[in-house]
Here is the input.
Amino acid sequence: MTPGTVSNSKPERSSWSAFIVVPVIFVGAYFAARAGIKRVEPGSLAALGLALLPVPPFAWLIWCFVRGIRSMDELERRIQLEALALAFPIALLVTFTAGLLDLAGFHGEGNWDLPRLCPLLLLPYWIGLALARRRYS
Amino acid sequence: MAVNNRLRVLRAERSWSQAELAERLGVSRQTVNAVETGKYDPSLPLAFKIARLFEQQIEDVFHFDGVPDARKETP
Here is the structure.
């Protein structure tokens, strides 16, 4: 290798459109499932199919995220790790607390379903991302 | 204890911008800036890549404060 010309494949930039299109598909599938489940018999095969409808889009979203992480350089990966290290335990805490609140009779309107919990699960990730980016900038 | 480096000096000697160096190393400009300012210690492969790019030994680019340089102490 010639000095001064260290070769390295440029990090493949993941398609950011995937991070817009796939979540939209997931949200669409989720609300379609919610609407559909109310119209079918509980416990039926149709209800099961509708309940599992959002799973493939979410799996696709995870795959896009993992592919995005792989295309990052080492500092960007560190930033993601620090953000997730903050977000994951908080997401667990929110989930456990929501379950206990539900058991304790604090159901609230619509129970502790995804639209209600989603901001609480995503907020720690965004905060962690902002803190880690600030630390290394 | 921290790892100090001469990356900014070496880059300035070649009149490279951070973006240009980042491009040559295959990392983001933010990574180059974080390494230069000592906010981020690069991995060993990246440190070797930096040293090779500037035609230097790795220990001539990066210095670890707190550990004496064994080469200098050898009579």
Q: What stands out?
A: The first helix of chain A runs from residue 18 to 37. The radius of gyration of chain A is 20 Å. Helices of chain A lie at 18-37, 45-51, 55-70, 74-103, 114-136.
